[in-house]
């Protein structure tokens, strides 16, 4: 497997670029021309392409066009001489992931390639997930995402679905607790029974009894369980309907609003949905999914999402999580990517967002191992931890066993 297909006709430049990438632990395959690179360009290429533009014979633009015809999601990074602005604009207009001037700054080259690789891996994982759903995997079909956290979430949902006890689903607003509950129901032995959804603030003794009766033999999903009065919590049965309960609170604080008996019942089976800001590599996958849905609903053609747009999406915090991303996809489908009057972040805020995205991507790549992540970013350990604290990030949240 390769990380970078490097296409450059000047052997000295090619060797220097290759050395820079290999020192960053990236696997490189060199090609001296388009003809040498062409056999490796296919839809299953695991890595990304870095190509010079000006080469004898077929140039970098031809390579870009062939690559995009073969796989529109394959990131291609173009290189050219200093100050060639018209060429850069043409490259970006034709779908290049990024454009770098030669001689390339080593840090910028490595950083750009890593961002492209993250996007490529997310794309390939999403394709694998789509293949899985064709085999009947409900979790793969309904819970999109390619990050380690999303993979762990789907696996936990599959495991929890096999149980029979009450389940606690917790995540920030907009993360999709009701969808996770539905997947658990559909993958459980009760899939043939009813799936009834209610929100706790709207329930009283009568409506709760009615909901339990409707859900008998199936599953009853109650959102905002922390808002259900204690008297009604006592009425939640252990038999009949399986209880799928959700909260936007942290699970550790739920005991303040939930009666002890129910709290104990919810200790065994818990599903945590991580927020989007902790899994930025999921954002392009989810955005494409929501965009396709929005275009189908509005009877619109699905617009292309260029790599630079995907990169901007990944750099945002998305406080509304999946719901906010879904709303943005609808606006994008209708050509309203930026709403009139929406204030733009200043340079400092944008730089903070980019720094946070890089920290998250590095922690994901190293599975939460702080020392390895710090070395990757060439940061002293104290500086690395100071930056994590500034962005409220914890390495342990990115370890594979912390997905739930």
UniProtKB/TrEMBL annotation:
Residues 3-117 form the Response regulatory domain. The modification 4-aspartylphosphate is found at residue 52. Pfam families: AAA_lid_14 (PF25601), HTH_8 (PF02954), Response_reg (PF00072), Sigma54_activ_2 (PF14532). Keywords: ATP-binding, Nucleotide-binding, Phosphoprotein, Transcription, Transcription regulation, Two-component regulatory system. Transmembrane segments: none annotated. One of its GO terms (molecular function) is sequence-specific DNA binding. Residues 143-334 form the Sigma-54 factor interaction domain. This is Two-component system, NtrC family, C4-dicarboxylate transport response regulator DctD. PANTHER family: C4-DICARBOXYLATE TRANSPORT TRANSCRIPTIONAL REGULATORY PROTEIN DCTD (PTHR32071:SF57), TRANSCRIPTIONAL REGULATORY PROTEIN (PTHR32071).
């Amino acid at each position: 497997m390769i990380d970078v297909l490097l296409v450059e006709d000047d052997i000295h430049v090619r060797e220097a670029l290759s050395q820079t990438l290999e020192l960053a632990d990236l696997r490189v395959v060199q090609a001296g021309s388009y003809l040498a690179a062409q056999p490796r360009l296919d839809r299953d290429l695991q890595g990304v392409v870095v190509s010079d533009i000006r080469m004898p014979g077929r140039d970098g633009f031809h390579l870009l066009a062939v690559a995009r015809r073969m796989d529109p999601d394959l990131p291609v990074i173009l290189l050219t001489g200093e100050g060639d602005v018209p060429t850069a604009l043409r490259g970006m207009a034709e779908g290049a992931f990024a454009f770098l001037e030669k001689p390339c700054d080593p840090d910028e080259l490595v950083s750009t390639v890593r961002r492209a690789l993250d996007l490529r891996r997310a794309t390939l994982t999403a394709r694998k997930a789509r293949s899985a759903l064709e085999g009947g995997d409900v979790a793969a079909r309904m819970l999109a995402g390619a990050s380690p956290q999303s993979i762990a979430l789907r696996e936990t949902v599959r495991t929890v679905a096999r149980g029979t006890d009450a389940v606690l689903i917790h995540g920030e607003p907009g993360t999709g607790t009701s969808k996770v509950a539905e997947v658990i129901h559909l993958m459980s032995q009760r899939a043939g029974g009813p799936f009834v959804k209610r929100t706790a603030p709207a329930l009283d003794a009568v409506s709760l009894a009615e909901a339990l009766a409707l859900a008998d033999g199936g599953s009853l999903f109650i959102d905002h369980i922390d808002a259900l009065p204690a008297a009604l919590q006592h009425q939640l049965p252990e038999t009949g309907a399986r209880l799928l309960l959700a909260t936007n609170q942290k699970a550790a604080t739920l005991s303040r609003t939930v009666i002890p008996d129910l709290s104990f019942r919810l200790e065994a089976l818990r599903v945590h949905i991580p927020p989007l800001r902790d899994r930025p590599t999921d954002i392009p996958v989810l955005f494409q999914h929501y965009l396709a849905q929005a275009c189908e609903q509005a009877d619109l053609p699905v617009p292309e999402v260029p790599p630079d747009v995907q990169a901007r999406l990944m750099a945002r915090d998305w406080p509304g999580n999946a719901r906010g991303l879904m709303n943005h996809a609808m606006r994008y489908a209708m050509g309203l990517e930026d709403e009139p009057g929406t204030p733009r972040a200043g340079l400092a805020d944008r730089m903070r967002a980019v720094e946070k995205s890089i920290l998250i991507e590095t922690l994901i790549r190293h599975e939460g191992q702080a020392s390895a992540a710090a070395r990757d970013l060439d940061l002293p350990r104290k500086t690395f931890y100071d930056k994590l604290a500034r962005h409220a990030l914890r390495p342990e949240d990115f370890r594979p066993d912390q997905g739930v």
